[in-house]
Design brief:
Alpha-Beta Plaits, binds ligand C2E, binds calcium ion, alpha/beta, 15 helices, TIM Barrel
Length: about 400
């Protein structure tokens, strides 16, 4: 059972390090009180605010019962400087040997379950479900190793995909509006690895932080270079994971990069998925405000596929909504899908947002979305993601 205390950074910042450490000791004591030493190894602490408990002879319902007990036990407030502080935690569980055959693997998949839960709702317990990742533990460990190697040995590749504008006239000229940065791993034996496989592992392991920093640095360097060479691209969009926002430092890193590459913040778009909004967390709000204050734009990525309610649209400062490609496949043949896309575009506009439609693979899909008022389009029909070096030459002729 892997446990992670939520918002601990906030407690440290508000009350100071000493109070934070004391609180962690109190939390650990309270957790330990609930653990039967006959059934459970001593509680282990990981990182600053994470704990692991290992139980003998336990099944899935048994683990869920323990998780509930531990969680319930957190409901009573803790005392910090005579103030009552409420603490919530997320838990992830994994079973030996069903989910992983080694201690290392077990820790890994429990952590993954925890982070999946955390993305959806704070204060939740989740049992690892292999089907949601399609990866056995030994493959995840291998992927994490690949990621480490790619980071240290020049194995990451930056790809860029154009985002275009056009008006809805037939054969209207397509113009480049901006690019999206997409990362790949170039594996010495297995060839190019897709981010859909390694990004979840990067998020669970924390390697998303150096990875995100690498992508941002390369992307900014590319934009500066492209601008010097006369490419008329306005913006570059970066994908940002929840974990990167919660880790802090994103805004400072971006500001520093912009200054070094002499780029205006107005040319930067940060894309986050709806799941980032689930943790009703001041860190998200503050980061968004700071990014806006810097001059960057914010985009909601994969719109319509997440689990959050639309209420965040009222009070979070977005500029762009990107309609997920799952809404686009039949947009030119299925009237219901066309109606849905048209309604999403209209809603975006009513809220003052610019609307991008992703996953355009066919001319008819492009025309339909343009006719419904889409501001920008992205997809294989216009161009696949290209290696940074090729992108420049190719985009000039787009
Ligand atoms: P995304 O942000 O939704 O990125 C768009 C994905 O759709 C890209 O897949 C792109 O290649 C693909 N795509 C573009 N046009 C079409 C099309 O017409 N048809 C189809 N079927 N697909 C199209 P990719 O590059 O494999 O990236 C997958 C996901 O990985 C991204 O989805 C994003 O969530 C994540 N990702 C990629 N790079 C990064 C990164 O640097 N940081 C983070 N945090 N996530 C990243
Ligand atoms: Ca935490
Ligand atoms: Ca994206
Ligand atoms: Ca997307």
């Amino acid at each position: 059972l892997h446990m992670d205390i939520n918002h601990f950074r906030w407690i440290n910042e508000s009350f100071g390090q000493d109070a934070g450490s004391q609180l962690l000791r109190d939390i650990a004591n309270r957790l330990e009180d609930q653990l039967d030493p006959q059934l459970c190894l001593p509680l282990a602490r990981l990182g600053s605010d994470e704990f692991v408990a290992a139980f003998a002879d336990i099944d899935a319902p048994g683990l869920a019962r323990h998780a509930r007990t531990l969680q319930r036990n957190m409901l009573e407030p803790f005392e910090v400087f005579d103030q009552q502080v409420f603490v919530s935690m997320n838990l992830g569980g994994a079973l030996f040997p069903q989910h992983a055959a080694t201690a290392e693997g077990l820790l890994k998949v429990a952590e993954l379950a925890l982070h999946r839960g955390k993305e959806r709702s704070p204060g939740e317990y989740r049992l690892y479900r292999p089907s949601t990742v399609h990866l056995p533990a030994h493959e995840m460990i291998a992927l994490e190793r690949d990621l480490h190697r790619a980071l240290n040995e020049d194995g990451l590749r930056l790809m860029l995909q154009p985002i275009v504008t056009a008006d809805s006239q037939p054969n209207a000229r397509v113009t480049l509006a901006g690019v999206e940065a997409l990362v790949r791993i170039e594996h010495p034996e297995r060839g190019v690895l897709s981010p859909d496989t390694f990004i979840p592992v990067a998020e669970a392991s924390g390697l998303i932080l150096p990875l995100g920093a690498w992508v941002m640095e390369q992307g900014l360097a590319w934009l500066a270079d492209a601008t010097r060479q006369g490419l008329d691209t306005q913006t570059i969009a970066f994908n940002v994971s929840a974990r990167e926002i919660h880790a802090g430092g994103l805004v400072e890193r971006l500001a520093d990069g912009l200054e070094r590459h002499d780029l205006a913040a107005q040319r930067i778009i940060l894309e986050v998925t709806e799941n980032v909004m689930l943790e009703r967390d001041s860190v998200v709000r503050e980061t968004f405000d700071a990014l806006r204050a810097l001059g960057c734009k914010l985009a909601i990525d994969d719109f319509g596929t997440g689990f959050s309610s639309l209420s965040y649209l009222q009070h979070l400062p977005f500029d762009i909504v990107k309609i997920d490609r799952c809404f686009v496949g039949e947009v030119h043949t299925a009237p219901r899908q066309a109606a849905l896309v048209a309604a999403m575009i209209e809603m975006g506009h009513a809220l003052g947002l610019s609307v991008t439609v992703e996953g355009i693979e066919l001319h008819e899909q492009a025309s339909r979305c343009l006719a419904s008022g889409a501001d920008h389009l992205q997809g294989y029909y216009f161009c696949r993601p290209l290696p940074a070096a090729e992108a420049l030459a190719r985009f000039i002729t787009l």
